[in-house]
Amino acid sequence: MKFVKALSCATVLAGCVFSSVSAADMTVGFSQIGSESGWRAAETTVTKQEAEKRGIDLKFADAQQKQENQIKALRSFIAQGVDAIFVAPVVATGWDEVLGEAKDAEIPVILLDRTVDADKSLYMTAVTSDLVHEGNVAGKWLVDTTAGKPCNVVELQGTTGSSPAIDRKKGFEEALKGHDNLKIVRSQTGDFTRTKGKEVMESFLKAENGGKNICALYAHNDDMAVGAIQAIKEAGLKPGTDILVVSIDAVPDIFQAMAAGEANATVELTPNMAGPAFDALAAFKKDGKEPPKWIQTESKLYTQADEPQKVYEAKKGLGY
Ligand code: GYE
């Protein structure tokens, strides 16, 4: 059943009888950024599982980290007349035109894990964490842990221009305000990948007296932190003690590092953004109920005190 009919009923509202067509008739196009990180690979796995659970036909497009490939995929989904589109927008800008085309085609768009700088009328809802809050939690942990002691911090940022890179930086800096013992001495993108995270951390270590001037690393995701941990070890230093390591995602590998004393804290990001997205879509299809513009997922701090090995065992099967 064409989702458009349900949509036009939704806009008319009164006097519309929504057919009891099940989600099984729904086709959803999903434009995913690419592999990028362990977290993102898990998001892809979980999205496919959630679609299967609901009998939804999921058309998956991997953009190999390129926005132009995402825009191409969205145009192809529109041409195919899918019932809805999910997109994890690699960067925040440049979406108005293609989102306008989806709106003209009456195809609802749901953003997953990142937001866009576009009019909110151009998408149905965004299922994301509070990215500023995540950076704030990481910053507050470092403030508490250093307890006034002087600490030079290096920062591995996510993909330049992406909403998590912008907001996680903002939240972290807000937490450090008023704590002059903490100074961000180097900050550069590691593009959310392990490889780049290691590479950039190597340059930080070289630039900062072999790492002796560095007291802490804040990485916008665990994958960059895991790459950086490798670089710190290769520089002959102990990650987790010589250089504190705090990051975001709570993927299994960071708990392995924590259990080995090589990482200190992470802020959890669920890979299951698609579940709430599919539910919002089904509710809209069934009775025209518009979801809020933001469906927020939880953010929880984990430290070495949270039995990391146990958490690793529990998490490692969940799509990662
Ligand atoms: O933290 C990272 C992924 O968009 C919030 O993207 C997401 C981030 C996540 O590559 O691991």
From TrEMBL:
Compartments, as annotated in UniProt: Cell envelope
Signal peptide: 1-23
Taxonomic path: Bacteria, Pseudomonadati, Pseudomonadota, Alphaproteobacteria, Hyphomicrobiales
Taxonomic source organism: Rhizobium quercicola
Main location: other
Chain ranges of the Periplasmic binding protein domain: 29-275
Keyword annotations: Signal
UniProt name for this protein: ABC transporter substrate-binding protein
InterPro entries named among the record's database cross-references: Peripla_BP_I (IPR028082), SBP_2_dom (IPR025997), YtfQ_transport (IPR054837)
GO-annotated cellular components: cell envelope
Stored NCBIfam families: YtfQ_transport
PANTHER family, alphabetized: D-ALLOSE-BINDING PERIPLASMIC PROTEIN-RELATED, GALACTOFURANOSE-BINDING PROTEIN YTFQ
A Gene Ontology molecular function term of the record: carbohydrate binding
Protein family according to the UniProt entry: Belongs to the bacterial solute-binding protein 2 family.
